[in-house]
Amino acid sequence: MLALVLAACTATKDAGKEPDKKDDPKPETEEGTEEGTEEAAGDKILYMNNGEEPTSFDPSIGFNAVSWSALNNIMEGLTRMDEDHKAVEATAEKIDISDDGLTYTFTIRENAKWSNGDPVTAGDFVFAWKHMLNPETASPAAFLAYFIEGAEAYNNGEGSAEDIAISAEDDKTFVVKLTSPNEAFPNIITNPSFFPINEKVASADPKWHTEAATFVGNGPFKLTKWDHDVSFEMEKNENYWDAGSVKLDTIHWAMVNESTTSYQMYQSNELDVTDVPAELSDQLKDSDELRIDDQAGLYFYRFNTSMEPFQNSKIRRAFGMAVDREEIVEFVTKNGEKPARGFVTYGFIGPDGKEFRDTVGDLVTYDPDEAKKLLEEGMKEEGYDTLPEITLSYNTSESHQNIAIALQSKFKEVLGVDAKLQNVESGVFLSDQKEFKYQMSRSSFLHDYADPLNALESFITGSSMNRTTWSNADYDKLIEDIKNETDENKRWDLLQQADKLLMEEMPVFPLYFYNSTTLEKPGVSGILRHPVGYIDLKYADKN
């Protein structure tokens, strides 16, 4: 339905991670010695860096990059992204679609097993999806399933679990009915939130996902060690239905959120893959070990529209227009990212064959004179002689801090505002942001599926992804119309209207669009990184 054609260029691998600084000991092999032993022992051990502790290995809760990187390798859904970034059969060996496009029937592979040897059943998918949609689970991913009949009503507490149109016709037949045809459905369910959960295991132990000893997955690898906040390890899953395609024996994941430290570990062969520190981007741009991948998402800041002075849209727009995005990507992040002048990223081609971002154009630009004017008008409307104190909040990371300092400087230069900075530990930061405790706070977004709607629907009233308290009836209606529109040309026009309205009201202001640059050791191959998707190590190898 959509073509995702993201231009390859460099960027930080920061999307969604929101890392903290933690020290990590030198990784060891099973023999207890440092790097190099795996070759002598004949094992293939890949050393990766996850940045920080995964939020959760409950697939319904771990809705961010630091959880997805592991979940996509220790678990698997009905479909999986292939080397061409397309959703193909995975745990399901066959997918039948009804003539009206509403009913999907998935046939689960006979040899699909859990890491403990149990067969993967259709009932495990029913159990997992209902767990995700259960209001008590409070899954941030639940909105992704709202295109399933009965899902939204149940998640909102207005319906019952029995009303969700998913069923296990038998142990190997899983049936789903949608509210309207959705060609992106097979792509959407590659998201870890739609992974199955072993019902027998989870019913016996609700905390099954919190430790390696109790974790049960169905992916190419199995979780074998987990030293919380330090590292975790996974090994090849001999019960995986396609175990013959898996080449690595072990993957060791460090948790180091400092890009410079990660790079030093890479240099000393403690990591096989690392991000590129911004300060070394010029030096490393011609390295033979540099890898460039597309990534759909953006770095942005949220306003709390219930907290003064950002209840006023003119004041919000003034701050958004006081930011020089070109300066940030050139002098702060320094990895060639594209400045974001709208919320929807590049890479989405419409039915007219044109790029969404180019068609909509620049919706928020650096304009110091207009910013000053808007601030003055907004303060007059609110009766302010002096602007209330402004605080920029961000989670612990050198890169986040550098960006916050750049914003602080620009707000002073353009608006004459002395903004304060607040640095908060990552785990606390996310929960506090969800509880609307910050006045202005940094954030990031990575696409869950390849459609502009995925980014725009985050800001409907009451969405768990909103985190701004902003509510706009016209915007809510636009998103509802987009979901129900079957004419692709009309739908594309509505999507553009939504992007424009979001930037006119500006409950958020974008800074730059993501892409991904990593350094990868010679001999490492087969790591899949998708523009919209999750790192896949199923076919990875190390020689």
UniProtKB/TrEMBL annotation:
<feature type="domain" description="Solute-binding protein family 5">
    <location>
        <begin position="88"/>
        <end position="465"/>
    </location>
</feature>
<comment type="similarity">
    <text>Belongs to the bacterial solute-binding protein 5 family.</text>
</comment>
<dbReference type="InterPro" id="IPR039424">
    <property type="entry name" value="SBP_5"/>
</dbReference>
<keyword id="KW-0732">Signal</keyword>
<feature type="compositionally biased region" description="Acidic residues">
    <location>
        <begin position="30"/>
        <end position="40"/>
    </location>
</feature>
<feature type="compositionally biased region" description="Basic and acidic residues">
    <location>
        <begin position="14"/>
        <end position="29"/>
    </location>
</feature>
<feature type="region of interest" description="Disordered">
    <location>
        <begin position="9"/>
        <end position="42"/>
    </location>
</feature>
<dbReference type="InterPro" id="IPR030678">
    <property type="entry name" value="Peptide/Ni-bd"/>
</dbReference>
<dbReference type="InterPro" id="IPR023765">
    <property type="entry name" value="SBP_5_CS"/>
</dbReference>
<protein>
    <submittedName>
        <fullName>Peptide ABC transporter substrate-binding protein</fullName>
    </submittedName>
</protein>
<dbReference type="Pfam" id="PF00496">
    <property type="entry name" value="SBP_bac_5"/>
</dbReference>
<dbReference type="InterPro" id="IPR000914">
    <property type="entry name" value="SBP_5_dom"/>
</dbReference>
